[in-house]
Amino acid sequence: MRHATERTRSRMDIIVRHGGNLIPKFDVSVVTHIVTDAQKGPTLRALGLRNLDKIPDHIPTVKWSWIVSCIGATQGDARLNEVWLYAAFSERIDAGIPKFNSTLSRNRTKDNVPDVVNISHISQFTQDGNHLQERNLIDMDDISEFPDPDNLQRSLPRALLDVTKTHDPLEQFYAKAKAELENGSPYHSDSECGSGPDLSRIEFHADMPLAKKGWTCDKRADKIDVCPNQDVIDKLQELMEIHKSRLGEEDRWRAFSYNKCIRILKSYPRRIQSLNEARSLAGVGEKTASKIIEIIETGQLRRIDYENTDDIKVGRLFQGIYGVGQSIAYQWYASGCRTLDDVLSGKGGVKLNPAQEIGLKFYSDINSRMPRDEAKAIFDLIKPIALQLDPGLFVEIMGSFRRGKADCGDIDILITRPTDDGKTHAGILSRLLRELHAAEILTEDLALPENPYDLECIYRGLCHLPKEGSSRRRIDFLTVPWQSRGAALIYYTGDDIFNRAMRMKARVMGYALNQRGLFAGVVRDPHDRSKKLNPGQLIASETEEEIFRILEVPWQEPHQRIRG
Predict the structure, then answer these.
(1) Which of 100, 376, 470, 563 could be 508's S-S partner, Cβ–Cβ 3.0 to 4.6 Å?
(2) What pLDDT was estimated at residue 283?
(3) Half-sphere exposure of residue 457, counting CA atoms within 13 Å on the CB side?
């Protein structure tokens, strides 16, 4: 306390005034929460620890904005348990959250799941899906501002001290945010928005329907034909993409916050009319509300011009080249490259691998989305050739096409084969690729499988309609074992947000879900949860329906799985 800044002392006074206790030395038997806005190093030094793993899982590390959000909360209020929304460090985002208790038996096996052989159909209509309403989402533009202690009139409950002992109504919801955090929303997979005490005021108008808390994957995506605030969404999306293009931690969180704000706006049923109305939306604070009104009144957002610096523009340009990620793009920028011609000429010693050379040559084609009809026309040429090689093959088009989207970024084709006649699809991919090259449907290879005779392979390349003037299009072939077809259909249908929610719900329920199937009894490394010490036992994989059923996710056709 003797060395604390005036700002820190004010925060301490607020905590004590509202019923909290300050502990001079970190003691795991006494401490219930760690509140810090500092970086990892200073925080660990203050705690006397070497790494974050030494903090018990039941103690969350939260930012000051969590304290602000709890002003006026009472025992059992959801805000007390929303520690994951205010996590100071991404690797501890699930600390302090009760474990999910599945109503299903942990010993459930594949034998007691009815065999369902139906495969969900590809939507025959186009769809530009919408998003579920969400509440209690933090506005990252606002958390940097410290509230005036004199304006904090309401009290923090003493329940703050044992908050982790209460029921968490969002226990099924936090993992989705973690998945988005770890996969690009706020950053990577293919994962925001406005100050002060207003963080606790995050709810819809009383006359608006409120979405039930839960997992993103648990509710079908209802279609809204027209979004009344689409112009606002487009500008905020542009600003979000700029923050996602940067490497800093702060930009990651801002992108995450804008993503949440955008999803709320997509679900809002009417045109925003005023600053107060904008501020009343979940996750929208003073700054973001001002941005929304600026867009509505002028059609522009000045912040975009401010943030869209030269390195951002050039980095995004370079990342349009196949095989170039964020790190390589910034390396090329640091080497002096500013245009695609600079890259082509090797300015600054830049060298391209064969796939990047192809990506640069067909840059415009690869970065243009194709109409749904074009994707179908290419698939309709490929499928008969595959069935001529083996009539027993299962050949299906996946991705955004299967979800019913009006256009597609690429073409994903899944290939497998029933094994009841003793045969498999081993080796079929290499034969098919030869035939498609001969038919001038495949044009360039970007990535060949190490062993095309494996049952599970991935090929990446370029294709086109075999006629003059047709554009190059990205295409992937995915082969999987027949017994994995259900899990593969889920995995390669998407969308990304839906899949992340499915995987994280499975993980919290004690399972593991990937493109091969649903596994029980998985043992993970406590120091690195991404590593499996025991891969577990396969309990479902052959149909989408059985996986949905075990995870207690209502059945959804592909066009109903659009969340992003």
Answers:
(1) 100
(2) 75
(3) 22
Mean pLDDT of 423-450: 97
Q: Is the predicted pLDDT of residue 407 greater than 90, yes or no?
A: yes
Q: How far is CA 533 from the centre of its chain?
A: 25
DSSP class per residue in 241-260:
HHHHTS-SHHHHHHHHHHHH
User: Phi then psi for 229, rounded to 5 degrees?
Assistant: -120, 30
Of the listed ranges 170-184, 229-243, 512-526, the least confidently predicted one is: 170-184
- Domain CATH for 525: 3.30.210.10
> Average model confidence (pLDDT) for the chain?
80
To the query of whether residue 405 is one of the catalytic residues in this protein, the response is no
Measured on CA atoms in the order 188, 189, 190, 193, is the torsion positive or negative?
negative
Q: What CATH number is associated with residue 280?
A: 1.10.150.110
Distance of alpha carbon 298 from alpha carbon 393, whole angstroms: 56
CA nearest 399: which of 327, 477, 504? 477
Are 396 and 472 part of one and the same domain?
A: yes
Name the pairing type of β-strands 442-447 and 407-408. unpaired
Q: For residue range 325-347, list pLDDT tens digits in order.
A: 999 999 999 999 999 999 999 99
Place of tokens 């039941």: 58
User: 199, 218, 160: which is closest to 289 by C-alpha?
Assistant: 199
Look-up of token digits 């975009």: 304
